[in-house]
Amino acid sequence: VANPLEQFVIKPIVPIEIAGLNLAFTNSALAMTIAAGLAIAAFVAASRDAAVVPGRLQSAAEMLYGTVASMVRDNVGQEGMRFFPFVFSLFVFLLFGNLLGMFPGAFTFTSHLAVTFALAATIFVAVTILGFYHHGTHYFRMFLPEGVPSYVAPIIIPIEVISYLSRPISLSVRLFANMVAGHIILKVFAGFVVGLGGFYVLPGLLPFSMLVGFVALEFLVALLQAYIFTILSCIYLNDAINMH
Amino acid sequence: LEDDKPRLIEQVSNRAREMQAARAPATPHSADKAGANQMGLGLRMSIDLVAAVAVGAGIGIGLDRWLGTAPWFMLVFLPAGFVAGVFNVARVAAAADRIRTESESGSGSGGNPAGPKEK
Q: Is 0.90 exceeded by the ipTM?
């Protein structure tokens, strides 16, 4: 059975070193560039010949736009639409990253905690700054829910602070863990198929049929995790703008 | 050909009615969508719990390292992290519950169990 972790190895493609820092252009960076480039190309192509009766590509683009727009409106409200470009870019970037990772042999950049945590930490810091910008010191009320008697405040405040600080961690770990677990399962079951004699004999057919199911499940997870990451970002944005 | 016209119109309108009937019950509570949302909800809760415990332990161990008071801050912040994790899970569950009862009573405003408003 091939090493199921081999698919996550970062390999430098163009070695770059500036001031002792390893800034090599890696396979992960390449996957991100492809995802971003493909997303831009797809949306440019979809909107170039915009018609009243949309074609296939235009419908897909409009559907994505509508999904994210209603997500922002439902979770943040109309004033949250200021942040729609950011939320939409985030969703499309993650969606393309997750789905491009489903190509055999492709690198899934969302399967690295460094990537997902960088995204989550950026959102967390931005949302916190936004909260203080909008509400000033009143934003500290986030850590003391309404109607809590003052004598339990010394217990509640550290707990709420921990709960608040756990956001970027749960946000990044969820995406990273789901992608890693799914891709390991795919690789392990694919290894079973080969180990049991290929998919044309009975013992190999069993893991092969399961593999087909897992691939379908992985597509669901790829979509769902991009969606969850984005919707949670919207919820955090809502907390910062509207404070509960 | 002219004779076929009324029949064709009838066929088309029948087909349209069938399609509408097939789509109508699927819109609010598609089994697939509900399943995906439940799965997302479960994953969300489990990781919310663990993340808070990790943050609590991290703060405690960090303070201990800094102040050289091991293991006291860890002993305080690890349970605090656990409580924060339970808070997180309870919040997600309460919000999901609220949205479900809202949509069951027919006054759902298109809420999403995977993305309930916290607090």
A: no
